[in-house]
Write a structure and sequence with these properties.
393 residues; two-stranded antiparallel ribbon
Length: 393
């Protein structure tokens, strides 16, 4: 009887959490696994060129492949009837070796017109370069690859399989990642500088004053991100509210450049992400006894010393939590840098959007997403360790 009751309670518990579990599986776990699979899978060349890998198995990778290997490649190209598959193959090969776009189209036309063609060098002199054949062999012989993950941080494998830096000028993913980290860090520091005093003032008040201050912070969360960014787009213009105010007060002779640069991006992102800093700090401050600061003053500590030695250490947990939230949110920002920033202010999310929608390179988009996910998880692990150490002490 008790066992049946126990089973009934567990079934009810599982039924209650089933909707949440299904939501997490379908909208979080499944997309995440799909992104990771796309980043390391490379099936295009093996599907489009099914016989080339075997034909090039004994090739020395230093000279022009033999005629039978060239014939196998020509037959595979001739048998590609799906233009979309051919386009995917060209993009895959061109990402490994520049020049395949024109070379593949020219070669496909040639082998289609002449079915007995076995000397591809006669079609284009570039087929005498072993580098093109190495790219074909590597792409056709592997269904799983680390090429996208390496390219996400401007690395690649040389002809011997060693990991080396990509040639200068071929990619700027590493620079964009560093820029993203720096901008997210600057926005986090700005949010701390504004959010900590604001949270302290809100925690020190009560009644309608506290409600008004918290409402001012929560107001941006009730508005669409696109609307907030568009508002800053108008405010930061040369004839916007800020520049008109500065010129009216005589503080500047002309408009200060606040848009299409990094300063404008930092200002807009700080405003958008400020609630994620204020609320964690505020939740910690309201739990601190209000008589600590008067007690420190009664013991002879000046206000600044009392703040540094009493209030600030007790509020650090909220500061760290807010900084983590702001930094992780800033890493994936796309709309604000795209509308307000210039060409040199775009963050890694813009590159991911380009690979996903512009270049249709889902593998690179997934690889860059994994890099961002790894950075976020490392930050979260650091936060958990700091929290655990604080609880033990």
């Amino acid at each position: 009887m008790s066992q049946g009751l126990w089973s009934s309670k567990h079934l009810k518990s599982f039924a209650l959490i089933a909707p949440l579990a299904l939501f997490l599986i379908f909208f979080f776990v499944a997309p995440l696994l799909t992104m990771m699979k796309t980043a390391v899978s490379d099936p295009v060349a093996s599907r489009a060129l099914p016989t080339v890998s075997e034909a090039l198995a004994k090739w020395d990778r230093a000279s022009v492949p033999p005629a039978d290997a060239q014939q196998a490649f020509a037959n595979d190209i001739r048998n590609i009837t799906d233009d979309e598959l051919f386009g995917d193959l060209v993009r895959r090969l061109n990402s490994a070796k520049s020049g395949f776009r024109t070379l593949m189209t020219k070669t496909r036309n040639a082998v289609t017109e002449n079915e007995d063609l076995t000397d591809l060098v006669s079609v284009d002199k570039r087929w005498a370069d072993p580098a093109f054949w190495i790219a074909i062999q590597d792409a056709a012989s592997a269904s799983l690859t680390d090429r996208n993950l390496l390219a996400a941080v401007d690395l690649q494998r040389d002809v011997n399989g060693h990991i080396v830096n990509a040639p200068v000028g071929t990619s700027a993913n590493r620079t964009t990642l560093f820029r993203t980290m720096i901008m997210a860090g600057v926005v986090t520091l700005c949010c701390i500088a504004v959010g900590l005093p604001f949270a302290m003032v809100a925690a020190s008040t009560s009644g309608w004053k506290r409600q008004l201050l918290l409402g001012a912070v929560l107001l941006p969360l009730w508005t669409s991100l696109l609307v907030r960014t568009a508002a800053w787009y108008i405010i930061l213009q040369d004839n916007g509210l800020i520049n008109l105010t500065l010129q009216t007060l005589g503080l500047t002779d002309g408009p200060v450049p606040l848009i299409f640069n990094r300063l404008g991006v930092v200002i807009a992102m700080t405003h958008v992400l400020l609630p994620f800093m204020v609320l964690p700090i505020f939740s910690v401050l309201i739990g601190i006894p209000k008589n600590l600061m008067p007690a420190a003053a009664s013991l002879g500590a000046p206000p600044v010393r009392a703040f540094l030695l009493v209030l600030l250490p007790l509020s650090l947990r909220g500061v760290v939590s807010g900084a983590l939230l702001v930094f992780m949110s800033a890493l994936g920002y796309y709309i604000t840098p795209a509308l307000i920033g210039g060409a040199k202010d775009q963050m890694i999310s813009s590159v991911i959007a380009y690979y996903a929608t512009g270049a249709a390179n889902w593998g690179m988009a997934g690889a860059l997403g994994i890099v961002l996910l790894a950075a976020t998880m490392m930050l979260y692990v650091v936060y958990l360790r700091l929290s655990a150490e604080e609880v033990r002490t």
